[in-house]
Input
Amino acid sequence: MDQKIVLTGIKPTGNPHLGNWVGAIRPAVELSRNPETKGFYFIADYHAMTGLKDAKELREYTYEVASTWIALGLDPSRVVFYRQSDVPEVFELSWILACFSPKGLMNRAHAYKAQVQKNQEAGEEDVDAGVNMGLYTYPILMAADILLMQSHWVPVGSDQQQHVEITRDLAQYFNRQYRKEVFTLPEALIDEAGAVIPGLDGRKMSKSYGNTIPIFAPPEQLRKLVFRIATDSSRPGEPKDPEASTIFQLYRLLATPKQTEALKAEYQNGIAWKDAKEALYTLLDQQLRGPRERYEALMANREELDRLFKEGAEEARAIASKTMHRVRRAIGIS
Ligand code: TRP
Output
């Protein structure tokens, strides 16, 4: 049986929230358990560097995000779990791909374009103000991550779809130039559920809106946050529309179908908002208590995380060096 190579990069940024879990972590962990896949999951620390220059933060976030994924079910003995920065082949390939990358392709990348637009709107003289070359060539580094492991499937949020398209383009330019299928063409797997997870104020849950529920908030804080979820002014006893309720939307993402039906019935019977919130809090606490304990244990055991990174790096580099061998031969360097 030929396994599909599934690869995704996780940017180390602080305090992952419920939206990240349901939209990105949970589906990726599920996919990693599928025996028809071989998973490559890595911490994209060098990608984070385009914006993050504080050494302490980068180190801390790397441990945090690694502990989060493992605590939420990613099994490092089943997937290759590594740090991007431990695989120098990524940078070698990144340069080679840069030589296949039309400058105009980078001009059209969303993150760069967004910064240019921001500058224009602010009346900045230099439209490239605040753009470092890391940000500008970000999609090339990502293409190197993906192509190095010969990935078939790349589970990402819809904001990353364009980067996977760029990766396909670069792979095709390369394969065509050398008349050889050196690189597998990857496909993005977009989880649509992830796009619509509402936050405390009903808008999409996002760090930039400050409306998130952190996955590992201590129980008291978790409860406080749940009780802050915006509701309408309908009173206890008045029937409520579950579809229009953030509490219900969040509940449904975590509950069994049976639990969801039961809460729906209570909405029709006019459940009080405080009881609906209590139901959501109870469910969240049940589901997150175990992971929270595992998370804390991992964060207190950095040696174990370092050991896992080292193991992962060895596995990743074994595959990387195979790909690079083929690449170097194709381009005439060995
Ligand atoms: N750019 C991705 C993000 O911001 C992270 C990432 C880096 C990635 N390399 C990758 C995702 C390779 C998938 C495949 O979320």
